[in-house]
Amino acid sequence: MSSDPGSYPPDLLSNYSASGFASSTRSLPFGAKPALLVIDVCNAYLTPGSPLYAPDRFHEALVSTDNLISHCRGHGIPVIFTRVVYPNPESGGNWYKYKGSGVLPCFDAGNELGDYPTGDQICRPQNGEIVIEKQFSSAFFGTSLASQLVAMKIDTLIICGYSTSGCVRATTTDGMQYGFNPYVVKEACGDRHAYPHDANLFDIQAKFGEVVSMDEVTKLMRR
């Protein structure tokens, strides 16, 4: 499976179309007040030996993420960063205790794996940029993100980061449910394997947002 709609099996496309889901059709407007949401881009995904490390996949997405951040800053589009931080194991609830006990300690307070990419001066907050600290998948759950976006009069979210099937998808779904128009930039998202990456981009496009290329989103921003 590939995130290019032209490569999807015809029966998959016809199934979704017959069910009322248009898996390759743009329908959400790109509004006048977008913001870039950079999801959990940190050392844990980029450092050999980390349980979340996957060679190439996250590094490739980081290059596109850096370009996207630079483009948004150059156009005066707000850049918002999210990061996972656990003051203690209990703050992660059952997700930390049962499902993520092998990987989520990467994000314990003070662990350098949870910090922004070492040596990368672009993918880290500048003075005045918002940082949302979270304990669960969605950047909206248990945080002030929604109220801050409303206060900023943001109508569209450009979304990138890690991982496509986890925190990117959860944040995109909640973004739609809170009334924002999510635009996920496919080259600037990373996952451990191509299959969950592509499958989740397909489903996001069909149900929860718009999946766009770097070229598409930069044209929308210039407009």
Automatic annotation (TrEMBL):
Give the family this protein belongs to, as stated in its UniProt record.
Answer: Belongs to the isochorismatase family.
- Recite the UniProt keywords alphabetically: Hydrolase
Q: Where is the Isochorismatase-like domain?
A: 35-215
**What is the name of the protein in this document?**
Isochorismatase-like domain-containing protein
Q: Which SUPFAM superfamilies match?
A: Isochorismatase-like hydrolases (SSF52499)
Report which superkingdom the organism of origin falls in: Eukaryota
Note the Gene3D superfamilies from the entry: Isochorismatase-like
What is an example of a GO molecular function annotated in this UniProt entry?
Answer: hydrolase activity
Sorted alphabetically, which InterPro entries does this protein's record hold?
Isochorismatase-like_dom, Isochorismatase-like_hydrls, Isochorismatase-like_sf
**What is any Pfam family matched here?**
Isochorismatase
